[in-house]
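Mods, move this if it's the wrong board.
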Amino acid sequence: MKVKAAVMYEQGLPAPYVDSTPLVIESIELEGPQDDEVLVEVVAAGLCHSDLSQVAGLRKRRLPVVCGHEGAGIVRDVGKGVKTLKSGDHVVMTVASGCGHCRPCLSGKPALCDAMGASRSQGLLPNGRTKLSLNGNPLYHYSGISSFAEYSVTVPGALIKIDPSIPLDVAAMFGCAVLTGAGSVFNAAKPRPGQHVAVIGLGGVGLNAVMAAKIVGASTIIGIDINEGKFPIATELGCTHTFSALDDNLVEKIRDLTQGGVDYVIEVSGARPAMKTAHAIVCKGGEIVCVGLGASEDMYEYAHATLVGQGRKVSGCFMGDCHAERDIETYSRLFLNGQMPIDKLKSDQISFEQLNLSLDQLHRGEVVRQILMPNAR
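Not the wrong board. Structure tokens:
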């Protein structure tokens, strides 16, 4: 079938992206579902900082690739052998599925699945196939999802069935932003009620971490960002204090406020200056949970004697240490009962033609989560 999709042919093109156009809108061929595959009409797809980093070339992808790794839609067809989904089901599309058999999966870490990681790096579906082409030439899959398209074919494990009462433009954010941000608190940091938490980077992921910190009862929730325009929404969602990352007295203010530093820092940006701040504001015995990804070759420095002498911890957290099926069900309930107002993170609904402009807005930090509506008319 012919579908409209956003294709990236080259990484590392310069901003402004509205001029360099890294995402090219094409009419491509999508092969229908074979055994153990599912055809999804993509109703909504989130534009994420991970997409921006791929466009910038910070982590290499097999090209050309149909982009998008966060989305939600409606099942329209299933191949033989698919028992868990049927036509008409509403689903979240996520990269955090696992094979169920490798060491990470068996240890309860399906987001770190060896098989899924290998297929993502090759631009293939987890079953080793590619379903996309243009003029007879193959196109590759972005993290096994490729949600920047009117329709997508993927495997059942990448799809989580959800309550149809959840609007799909909100559900799209569950696949990455919600899993990663909320999971960094619920699954990784696990702060106790009354503890101090700082979140560096108040985009979609960071604000989900803020909401989770509020739910667990953190007494002080500090939001830090370069863009002070995000502070009102951060405060509304749970921040007790907000600080500019550019404030020369930032570290002193936070250490004074918390009487020695925060118990947990959720570092979302992956930038070296942000990691320096994280080390400076964490208390003795505290922990830095690293969520943001820098460039593949980036190296970070820290004072080892301080790390050991003050009993601090630094941990990596990919996709919120999530178990996608379990966690999306949990976060769906929290959204429906009003504890996680995820809908407030939606900055705008956009069309294919606005994608490159939207990348510029994301690059400048002007938005939280823009939602592509591939089939909007």
